[in-house]
Design goal:
By secondary structure, this protein is an all-alpha fold. The protein has one domain. Helix content is 54%, strand content 0%. The chain contains five helices and no strands. The longest helix is centred in the middle third of the chain and has 21 residues. 6% of the residues are buried. This is Anti-sigma factor RsrA. InterPro entries: Anit_sigma_mycothiol_RsrA, Znf_put.
Length: 111
Amino acid sequence: MSCGDPHETDCSEVLDHLYEFLDREMPDGECTKFEVHFEECSPCLEKYGLEQAVKKLVKRCCGSDEVPTDLRAKVMGRIDLIRAGHLVPEQDPAAGEPAAAPVPQEPATQE
């Protein structure tokens, strides 16, 4: 997406890293670049506002849910593998894992 106007920071770069900006997971200098871009570019500012609203809604609706310990450990393990360069984020790590067997259902009893 591009608004068609020239900017110091391209719209595609801003949108590619929007969640990093929202989560404050980028250096301050990068954040400043994005803030300047949002002042100049209303389509990107609109997208930012929408994503920010969705993030707040999810936090409000799901923020009190506890993450199961095994799920957290699995996710953190995958993050560690990606950081170490052993796994590419685009890979589907579940593809090599066997699927869980379905749980057999007991037949319904008639009364």
